[in-house]
Amino acid sequence: MDKIRIRGGKALIGSIPVGGAKNAALPLMAASLLTEETLALANIPHLADITTLANLLGTLGVDIALDGHAAGGHQGRVLALTARKIASTTAPYDLVRKMRASVLVLGPLLAREGQAKVSLPGGCAIGARPVDLHIKGLEALGAKIELREGYVDAMAPHGLTGAKIVFPFVSVGATENLMMAACLAKGTTVLSNAAREPEVGDLARCLIAMGASIEGVDTDTLTIHGRDRLSGTTHAIVPDRIEMGTYAMAAAATGGDVELLGGRVELIAAAAEALRAAGATLEDTPRGLRVRRTNAPLVGVDVMTEPFPGFPTDLQAQMMALAATAEGASMITETIFENRFMHVPELRRMGANINLHGGSAMVRGVRKLTGAQVMATDLRASVSLVIAGLAAEGETLVNRVYHLDRGYERLEEKLAACGAEIERVKEAA
Asked: I need a surface site. Which of 22, 82, 254, 322 has the fewest CB within 10 A?
């Protein structure tokens, strides 16, 4: 199993290309099931999760072609998906278990074929992320759904019908699944308390380009007027705001100066506010976003994770790594997932002073972290350990880095280009 070795203490200086957003690419790929024409997605990231969903779509009958390379990061690679005929409406356990986002095929399959059988999903072990809202929403659209033998078995032989759906809490996945399903439903669907994440807006804009009628994009109320069919289109995926925020925090934590090519500060507004409060400088450039820290030390800041436009839960672990060496104390509160502090024991191994109080972590900054052997527990936790290793004295060895490959493309290469001493180590068989 691969490991990542880091010798810390070097400031990151240079430029890093920001790729397409994984969390936008996955629902966009699922949207290919809504039309028999080709959906071409530009700026597709090369990640394990993308491969997993491509394999799943292939079993459902989608023809897939990859063209181009990710030269420059924010352009290049194009994934063409064509679902002329759905070969199967079953998403099997062996594929879905690897990644939670696989459940996004449920709505499109049901809307187009009138039936779908999708295994209950897997993914990172960061707490319960039930599909209840997906199921209740599809039932409101007229589907008959049973849960049996680990599968969601859905039927709508006469098609779906528009409805008014109020989410009891914000759910990105449920918003995306129901928005896609509603595009082919009869009549009008209104989704209230819908997620406003940029990835949701990106999906909506792609669906509109495919012929869907969607009002209220980027707001918490989406109105979808169903259509008989959708067409193909070409769509460029929005830049990955979590990758952007991760490298911004790495630059700040190491006292560096990094230009994020293709970056857009409005996509990480809440994180940018926290970084500025901690002592980092962020400024737009003609090519993207520049993040730097002067000679002054970082200072502690309080953050609370919230649905967009609040501070992203997917940047909480990275912010904690940054706060570990800031002057003073930081209170980091997690409100989205109940088990997303599994990186804390590993950061403590590196000398971080962190105390947990329920859903909050009190981080008291120390002068320096020290390198250690640590273990990744989930995608974002793994990259927080990389940030800590970059800022630490000595050598850090991050184990179980397969988590990283799910969400960060060419991470070692991008960091090494900015002066980091980082390498992937293949474990001897």
From this structure: 82
Sign of CA dihedral 404, 408, 412, 418: negative
Number of H helices and number of E strands within the chain?
Answer: 14, 24
**Strands (E) located in 294-371:** 303-304, 329-333, 353-357, 360-364
Q: What is the pLDDT of residues 49-61, one digit of tens each?
A: 899 999 999 999 9
Q: What is the rounded CA–CA span in Å between residue 158 and residue 188? A: 16
In the chain, the amino acid numbered 379 is L
Bridge partners for 373 per DSSP? 397
The pair of three-digit structure tokens given for residue 300, joined into one six-digit string = 């502690």
SS3 sequence of 379-405: HHHHHHHHHHHHHCECEEEEECCHHHH
Helix (H) or strand (E) holding 253: helix 241-253
Strand order in the sheet with 233-236: 63-67, 78-82, 38-42, 233-236
The enclosing H or E element of 166 equals strand 164-166
For residue 120, the model assigns a pLDDT of 83
Tokens found for residue 89: 């409406």
What element of type H or E holds 189?
Answer: strand 188-192
- Is position 124 annotated as part of the catalytic site? yes
Residues 203 and 239: their CA atoms lie apart, in Å, by: 13
Please tell me whether residue 58 adopts helix, strand or coil conformation. helix
Rounded to a whole number of angstroms, the CA Rg of the chain reads 21
> Would you say residue 105 has pLDDT above 80?
yes
Question: What would the pLDDT profile of 261-294 be if each residue is shown by its tens digit?
Answer: 999 999 999 999 999 999 999 999 999 999 999 7
The shares of helix, strand and coil residues in the chain, as percent rounded to the nearest 5, are 35, 30, 40
Residue from 124, 183, 206, 418 carrying the catalytic annotation: 124
